[in-house]
Amino acid sequence: MPPPAASSRYPSPSQPSGKSEVTDLKSQLRQLAGSRAPGVDDSKRDLFKKVISYMTIGIDVSSVFGEMVMCSATSDIVLKKMCYLYVGNYAKGNPDLSLLTINFLQRDCKDEDPMIRGLALRSLCSLRVPNLVEYLLGPLGSGLKDNNSYVRTIAVTGVLKLYHISASTCIDAEFPATLKSLMLHDSDAQVVANCLAALQEIWSLEASHSEEACREKESLLSKPLIYYFLNRIKEFNEWAQCLILELAVKYVPSDSNDIFDIMNLLEDRLQHANGAVVLATVKVFLQLTLSMTDVHQQVYERIKSPLLTLVSSGSPEQSYAILSHLHLLVVRAPFIFASDYKHFYCQYNEPSYVKKLKLEMLTAIANESNTYEIVTELCEYAANVDIEIARESIRAVGKIALQQYDVNAIVDRLLQFLEMEKDYVTAETLVLVKDLLRKHPQWSHDCISVVGGISSKNIQEPKAKAALIWMLGEYAQDMSDAPYILENLIENWEEEHSAEVRLHLLTAAMKCFFKRAPETQKALGIALAAGIADFHQDVHDRALFYYRVLQYDVHVAESVVSPPQQAVSAFADTQSSEIKDRIFDEFNSLSVIYQKPSYMFTDKEHRGPFEFSEELGSTSITPEVSSDIVPAQQFEANDKDLLLSTDEKDDNKGLSSNNCSAYTAPYESSNISSQMQELAISGPAASATTTQSSFDFDDLLGLGLSAAPAPTPSPPLLKLNPRASLDPRAFQQKWRQLPISLTQEYSVNPQGIAALTVPQSLIKHMQSHSIHCIASGGQSPNFKFFFFAQKEAEPSDYLTECIINSSSAKAQIKVKADDQSTSQAFATVFETALSKFGMP
C-alpha cells in the first residue's frame, strides 16, 4: 500500500512539517487576532500550544511576536499565561520587539481580575530590558498599593527585579522604604515575608557603599523587629519561617531572659512536620545557648526527640539530611545520644548512603555501656549482601575497638571475621588487626596465631597485603614461617604493582633480618637490590637509605628501623577541631551534608557578604598562596639530595659527561662508605679497609659482588652537529636501506612523563642536545618519534626511532647509523639527553 499523500498526513504538534509551518502559524494567528466568533479562544489555545511547543524544542518563532501580542486581547487566563511565557522568553533577546508588549501589559496591570493583574505585573518585571525601566515604575507603585495580597506579593518581588536591572532607579523611587512600611504593617504574611527577603538582599548589596543601607540592614536585627516576626511566625509558610529563623540566628540577645523568651516562642516549631523548619529552629537554640554550658546541654536533650522522629518518618533523602546534622551533634556530645543507639540500627530497605551514615553514628556513640550490643549488631552486617556495607561495618567494629579500653570481646569478633573465608572481609579485618596491634600490643599472641594461618596468595588488596607484611616483620619472632613468606613475596617483586606493598616489604625484610638474620639474609639482599632498581622514587629512596645505613652500622640500622615497640595512644583525626567548629557554625546548610566548610566547595564570588576569612590555609590551596608551594620537580630534587653526598651532587651536575643515570645503583661506586659517613649523625671513623668491607657486605646480602670492579674510564662523548639538516625523503630512503645497529630500552623519569603531555616539549628538549625530530605521532599512552643527528666533523647520520609508553615510563629506541661502530656512543648521548627531559 503506498504511503498517504502529504496533505493527508497529520503533523506532530511538537515538530514542524516544513519550512512554511511558522509562516502558516503567523497567518492563522493574524486571522484570529480580531475575531470575536464563538470558539475563537479554543482555536487560539491550539495555536498558542504549537508556538510554545516549537519554542520549547528550540525553533525560532520570534517572527510571530506581533501576532501573539495582538491575540493576547482576551479574558481567557490560560491564553494570557501562554502569551506571557512567550513574551518573557523573547523579550530579553529582542529589546525592540519588547516595546510591542508594554501597552498590553500595562493595560492588563489594570484589569479587574487580580490574577491577571499579578501575572501581567510579573511578566512586565521579567522583561529585564534596561531601556524599559521607566515603564515599570507606575505599575510597581500601583501593585504595592493594590487591595489584593497576590498582586502586592508579585509587586514586592518585582521591586527586587527592578533593583537588579537598575539599582539607582529603584533607590531613587524610594521603593525600599515602601517595602519596609509594607513589612511592618501589611496583614498578609506572604507579603511580609517577600518584603523581608527583598530588603535583606537590597540592603546587603547597598551596604558596601551606603551608610544608610548599613543602618537599615542592622535594624533588621533589632529586638522589636525580631520579636515582631517571631510572634507572627505561625502565620507564615515553611519557606518564610526558615527565612525568619535564619534572621533570628544572627540576633544577639541582651541577657539570659531574652534567650529564654525567644526559645519559648519557638518551642512549638520543634514539633513542625517540615524538616527544614525543625533544623532552622535547632540552629537558633544551639547558637543562642553557646555561652550557657548547662542550658546548651539541655538543648541537646530537647532537640534529640524531634530529630529522631524526623529520621524515621521522612523520605530517605530527608533522613540522610537529618542524620548528617545528628552526626554533627553526636560527635560533639556522644554521651547524650548513647542510650538511643537503637535508632541508628540499619533497616533492610534503607539506601546504602543512609546505612553508611548510621554506621558512623554507631561508632561515635559507642561506650562501655552499649559497646557489646552495638558490636553484635555490626557483626551481623558483616555478612550483608552489599559488600560496601559489609566493609563499613567491619571498619566500624575496628574503630570501636581502637577507642575502647576493654576490647576482649571485640578482638574475638574481629578474629572470627577471618574465618568467614570472604576475600573482602579478610582484607578489611587484616587492616584493622594491624591498627589494633599498634595500640594494644598485648593482644599479639592471640592475633598472630590466627593471622599466621592466612595464605598471602589469597590476599589481593594492597592495603590488606601491606598489613599482613607489617605483621610478618613486626612479629617475625612469633611467626615461624615469617622469613619464608617474605622471601616468597620478595621473589615475586616484579609482579607486585603496589608501591605501598613494596615499601612494606622492604621494611618487613629489614625487621625480620634483625630478629632472624640467617633465614632472612638472602631475602633482604634481593629486596634491597630490587628496591634500588625500582622505578618508583619512594621505593628506590627507602631501599637506598636502608642499604647505606646497614653499611654504616647494623646496630644503628636496627635502632632506626626496628626500635622497641611502643603502643600508639591515639590515631590522628581526619578533621581538625577548627574544621568541625566551622561546620557547626554553618549548621543547617550544605556544609553539614558535605562535612566540610562552605569555602571548600564554593567560589569566592558566591560566598555572600558573611563569608569567613580563610584562616585555615593549610586545609586548602588557593591561587593566592599557590606561589608559596614548592613545585613537585623541585621537591623531588631536594628529596633526592637528602640521599646523596656532596661529591655525588657535584657529579650529578655534570651528568652528561659521565653517562650515568640519575639513580645509579650505589654498589657500583667505590666511595660508598664515605657517603655513609656523611649521612650519619655520629659514628666511628672510617678504617682503611672500608671499601673492601662494603663489598664484603654486598656479598653477605647476596648481591653477587665479590670484589670491587676497577672503574672504567668513560669514553669520550660523541660530538654532534647542532645545525644538522636532513630531507624527509632522504630520511625515509636511508631508514629503508640501513640495518638496525642496536635496540635498547630506557626508563623515563617521572618529571619527563609529566612533561610529555605536550610532545612538542620533548622535541625542543632533544633539539637542544643536537638531536632533531623529523616526524612524530601517537597519543597517550604511546608516543612515537623519529630523530636524526649528524657528527660534527664527518658527514655521518644517525637515525633513531623512539617509542615512549607513558604508563610504563619506558622508552624503546632503534638506532641506524652510517658508521655503525659509533652507534653505541650515539645511544649514550641519546640516553643522557632523554634522562634530563623534564628536569629543572
From TrEMBL:
Gene Ontology cellular component annotations, sorted alphabetically: clathrin adaptor complex; endomembrane system
Ranges where the record places region Disordered: 1-25
Beta-adaptin appendage C-terminal subdomain domain ranges (all copies): 718-835
A GO BP entry: intracellular protein transport
Membrane-spanning residues: none
Biased composition (Low complexity): 1-17
Pfam families (UniProt xref): Adaptin_N (PF01602), B2-adapt-app_C (PF09066)
Domain of life: Eukaryota
MF GO annotations: clathrin binding
Subcellular locations according to the entry: Endomembrane system
SUPFAM superfamilies noted in UniProt: ARM repeat (SSF48371)
Keyword field: Membrane, Protein transport, Transport
Protein task: Subunit of clathrin-associated adaptor protein complex that plays a role in protein sorting in the late-Golgi/trans-Golgi network (TGN) and/or endosomes. The AP complexes mediate both the recruitment of clathrin to membranes and the recognition of sorting signals within the cytosolic tails of transmembrane cargo molecules.
Similarity-based family: Belongs to the adaptor complexes large subunit family.
Oligomer status and interactors: Adaptor protein complexes are heterotetramers composed of two large adaptins (beta-type subunit and alpha-type or delta-type or epsilon-type or gamma-type subunit), a medium adaptin (mu-type subunit) and a small adaptin (sigma-type subunit).
Name recorded for this polypeptide: Beta-adaptin-like protein
Annotated source species: Brassica campestris
